[in-house]
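#onboarding

Welcome to the new folks! Below is a worked example of what a typical request in this channel looks like: someone posts a single protein sequence, and someone else replies with the predicted structure as tokens. Don't worry about understanding the tokens yet, we'll cover that in week two.

Example request:
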Amino acid sequence: MSLSQKTPDYVNSHDTSEMESTTQLKRDSLSTIKELPDPRLIGFSIFSLAIFLFVTAIYYGIINP
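Example response:
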């Protein structure tokens, strides 16, 4: 007797339409490269934030130069 014959029917039943709709939802919600802002803008923003945090840490004495 195989494993699929031993398990109850409700365990083996799969609603394929529900699985397909979940897959479609995941595919629709993924961001593509075209939807993201320019990588130079992201890099500049991160760099500016790092400089700001570094200067703030020096000002408050967290980093002692």
